Amino acid sequence: MPAFHAFVLAAVLAAGDAPGDPAAVRAAMREALREAAPLPSARPVLPEGALPAAQMTDARRTMKRDAERMAIEHAKKGASQARHDARGEGTRRGNADEMMHGDREGGDPSCDPAEMMRSRGTMPGGDHTMPAPDPRHRGM
Amino acid sequence: MTVFLLALDLLLATPGQPGMEEHLAAGARAFREGRYESALVEFRVAQALGATDAAGYAAASLVKLGRAEEAVEAFAVAHESSDDALLGYYRAIACYDARLYLCGDRLLGEVGERAGPRIAEQARKTRAAIASELSREPSRASVDWYLARCAERRADGRPVLAGAYCDEAVALAGKRGDRYRLAEAAAQRAALPAASGPR
Using the beta-carbon criterion (under 8 Å), do B3 and A19 form an inter-chain contact? Predict the structure, then answer.
């Protein structure tokens, strides 16, 4: 009789350990695979060259170049205007030294190309590449 | 005492390795619930314990995790999945997502209706998209890209992937009128182990 008990105990323990019918597990897995069947990630496009992740794309490079060009053009215009103003002032005062000083330091600081690019976030290390459409509209 | 030992034998005489089925079941449960990281771990353990079908499930989990290149490698050793249309579809998507379009197309062609009408329809659409992209002559830059990827993966010690990229390079170069770098691609491919499973 004790032997019978041992046999029953073993059978119960074995049944308790069983993870379930292996066939049922596989059937459930197949159903899960069917339900979760993935779609392709994107439209197929044959690759034609890869850039390292840190490298700029052509589009970003173009935007950055455009921002630089705009900043330089704006700075040139500002410098020309400042020179013109300073010349008028210098003529009035008859002081050539002051005229030169005005050209370098008396002008609008926003005419400095570096300042322009900094304000637009296009200096090296800056992440913004799109210049603000109109500096007057920056901020509130 | 003899009877007790017999009972003990019965207790321990579970089919296969102990725990193998538990891990397979846990993996299936995790997969069903969308916990693909957990599913992958469970299937890997089950695979290590001897569950032959776990390799294909682990590869499918990698596809769901977006780890396409690893999935391509995992499917290559999952021999059980070679005649399974459902896993064949997952393998095709792994190829596709790794930009191995010709590999993906070939596998999708083998899926047919066996994986069910919804998947068969998706397979048809995907093949049509691949055919459209491959309808024009591949550029030299594309052949260069696949050859470069083949060399990179070989240098990384991933010969299965290297072989898959070289296969694409050979096929794409063969589609060009000038057979651009075809001989080079074929030579590189020949130096790598043959692909396993359906190609």
Answer: no
Does this model's pTM top 0.80? My answer is no
pLDDT in tens, A47-100: 987 544 433 344 443 444 455 445 545 554 555 565 556 555 545 444 444 444
- Measure CA of the first residue to CA of the last residue in chain B; give whole Å: 58
The Cα–Cα gap between B51 and A29 comes to 14
User: How many angstroms away from the CA of B74 is the closest CA of chain A?
Assistant: 16
| pLDDT (tens digit per residue) in B107-122 | 999 998 889 999 999 9
Check A29 against B57: CB less than 8 A apart. yes
Q: CB-based contact (8 Å) between B110 and chain A? A: no
> What ipTM was reported for this prediction?
0.85
Tell me how far apart the alpha carbons of residues B72 and B96 are, in angstroms, rounded to a whole number. 10
Residue type, B88: G
Q: What is the C-alpha to C-alpha distance for residues A52 and A41, in angstroms, rounded to an integer?
A: 21
* Residue whose tokens read 């995992």: B74
CB contact A18 to B (< 8 Å): yes
Q: What single-letter DSSP state applies at residue B79?
A: G
B32 touches chain A (CB under 8 A): yes
